């Protein structure tokens, strides 16, 4: 065996995941024949060939005659074990980045890993201050790890969550493209709060104000954009404009809400997947798109290496933290099966309230907030409905009370004789634990009805009559939205899905602060 410490720098190549029979960051030194790929379907046997591996030392165990190092590069959950001589292992400790060249061989039966790397040469690519390195192999609380968002993604499970995010985005892109949706980039800085969906962040500039001598006066001078602007709380209104140009549009955009919310399901900055469809006038067709899309994602996940690793993580001791989820592998698999279940129930809001009341009166269920038509569904109610009626999967609840919903939602197609009040053509998709995952509706496309609704909703008091019998919007911030109805308006509708919540649900993680790499919530925006 040639034992040599390499001093020249060797080119960095691909990842362990390329290694036959292994997860992770490995390629052969040229001119060796290319190695086969990925651990799935079924893994090719280790060839005994010499290969070159780049990665980080997850742990190292030094014995008299040998040392064992676990090498990970984030491309797989399981590390690659390298067998080193004591000389090769000199100076190696957790966190150091290395290149190891060695023979990739099968392990004898009974070993935890199927293959290992017999090192021929080791090169340190990046040293590590091991004494102070905060990421340790021992148990570390999620709260502690949240103080290190720049380092915690090196943990194998956190790397897996990054790969899950990437895979889901790729699949969504394919799904929408296959259905002729156009992907768009609506603005992040907006002039209104969409629907009063939440508190807004106001945009200011360190460059000071706008033009020093703005002809529009002092107010205009005070603001970079001449009047207050905000970070978007939803791209919906802009998507409505684009849907009337190209038919069907979608986006996955950063979204901001300044609510002082500390729940495990809310963040101040998150990604929302939103879609808008022109020439659509019923909620059922919108729910069909949502159902098809999530089923497509679940199918892809189940058959992917990421899916297998998510299950593997739960069937071993990878996940020690409660915040990362207490679900077993079987529970997580059942969640995915629930998404794939034949048809998701669709239930009207009035029925949902009746069922919740029944649960209290007949089955003795207890909720902190009583189910009442005018109070909406609280997280506990949503969880109960999904758990009880979803057959392990989601439930759609449709036709919520008008007074609880945004101004742009038109009356329900069939107005039931509900003594409690009118309802609107909308839906929420509810799943166990995570609760509301998607919300959508038909949009009011008739100018006069829209203006009436805008007037009625007090948060939009920028709508006035101009006194000449014509409708007008005093504050130009929503004039453009009304214009969409004036100029060739068609029935349309859409939905918004909390993308990080979706990852929470698919991964079985409990707190949204774990699936977002650099999470922001009130009081916390670390780096
Ligand atoms: N695009 C959507 O329908 C999402 C909706 N505007 C919301 O913020 O919930």
UniProtKB/TrEMBL annotation:
Domain Aminoacyl-transfer RNA synthetases class-II family profile: 162-519
UniProt keyword annotation of Protein biosynthesis present: yes
Pfam family, one: tRNA-synt_2
GO cellular component, one term: mitochondrion
Documented EC number(s): 6.1.1.22
One GO MF term: ATP binding
GO biological process, one term: asparaginyl-tRNA aminoacylation
PROSITE patterns linked to this entry: AA_TRNA_LIGASE_II (PS50862)
Keywords: Aminoacyl-tRNA synthetase, ATP-binding, Ligase, Nucleotide-binding, Protein biosynthesis
Keyword Aminoacyl-tRNA synthetase annotated: yes
PANTHER family: ASPARAGINE--TRNA LIGASE, MITOCHONDRIAL-RELATED, ASPARTYL/LYSYL-TRNA SYNTHETASE
Descriptive protein name: asparagine--tRNA ligase
Native species: Aulographum hederae CBS 113979
């Amino acid at each position: 065996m040639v034992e040599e410490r390499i001093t020249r720098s060797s080119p960095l190549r691909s990842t362990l995941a390329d290694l036959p029979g292994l997860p992770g960051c490995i390629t052969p030194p040229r001119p060796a024949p290319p190695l086969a790929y990925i651990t799935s379907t079924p893994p090719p046997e280790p060839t005994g060939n010499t290969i070159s591996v780049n990665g980080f030392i997850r742990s190292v165990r030094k014995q008299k005659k040998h040392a064992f190092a676990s090498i990970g590069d984030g491309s797989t959950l399981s590390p690659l074990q390298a067998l080193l001589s004591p000389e090769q292992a000199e100076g190696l400790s957790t966190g150091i980045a290395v290149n190891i060249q060695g023979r990739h061989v099968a392990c004898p039966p009974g070993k935890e890993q199927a293959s290992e790397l017999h090192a021929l040469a080791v090169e340190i690519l990046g040293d590590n201050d091991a004494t102070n390195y905060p990421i340790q192999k021992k148990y570390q609380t999620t709260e502690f790890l949240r103080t290190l968002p720049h380092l915690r993604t090196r943990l194998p499970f956190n790397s897996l969550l990054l790969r899950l995010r990437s895979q889901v985005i790729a699949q969504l892109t394919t799904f929408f493209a296959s259905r002729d949706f156009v992907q768009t980039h609506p603005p992040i800085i907006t002039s209104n709060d969409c629907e009063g969906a939440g508190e807004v962040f106001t945009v200011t500039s360190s460059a000071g104000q706008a033009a020093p001598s703005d002809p529009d006066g002092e107010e205009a001078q005070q603001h970079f954009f001449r009047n207050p602007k905000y970070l978007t709380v939803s791209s919906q209104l802009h998507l409505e404009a684009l849907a009337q140009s190209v038919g069907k549009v979608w986006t996955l955009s950063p979204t901001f809400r300044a609510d002082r919310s500390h729940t495990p399901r809310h963040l101040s900055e998150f990604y929302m997947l939103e879609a808008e469809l022109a020439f659509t006038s019923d909620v059922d067709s919108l729910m069909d798109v949502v159902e098809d899309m999530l089923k497509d994602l679940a199918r892809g996940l189940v058959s992917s290496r990421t899916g297998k690793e998510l299950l593997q993580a739960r069937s071993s001791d990878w996940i020690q933290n409660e915040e990362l989820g207490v679900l077993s592998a079987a529970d997580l698999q059942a969640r995915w099966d629930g998404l794939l279940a034949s048809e998701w129930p669709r239930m009207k809001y009035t029925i949902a309230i009746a069922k919740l009341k029944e649960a209290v009166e007949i089955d003795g269920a207890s909720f902190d907030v009583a189910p009442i038509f005018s109070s909406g569904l609280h997280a506990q109610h949503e969880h109960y409905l999904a758990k009880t009626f979803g057959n392990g999967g989601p439930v759609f609840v449709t036709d919520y009370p008008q007074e609880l919903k945004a101004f742009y939602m038109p009356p329900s197609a069939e107005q039931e004789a509900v003594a409690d009040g009118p309802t609107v053509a909308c839906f929420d998709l509810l799943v166990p634990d995570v609760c509301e995952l998607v919300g959508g509706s038909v949009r009011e496309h008739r100018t006069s009805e829209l203006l009436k609704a805008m007037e009625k909703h007090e948060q939009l008091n920028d709508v006035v009559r101009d006194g000449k019998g014509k409708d007008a919007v005093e504050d130009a911030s929503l004039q453009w939205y009304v214009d969409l109805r004036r100029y060739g308006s068609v029935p349309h509708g859409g939905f918004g899905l909390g993308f990080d919540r979706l990852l929470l649900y698919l991964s079985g993680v409990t707190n949204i602060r774990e699936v977002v790499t650099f999470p922001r919530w009130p009081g916390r925006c670390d780096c």
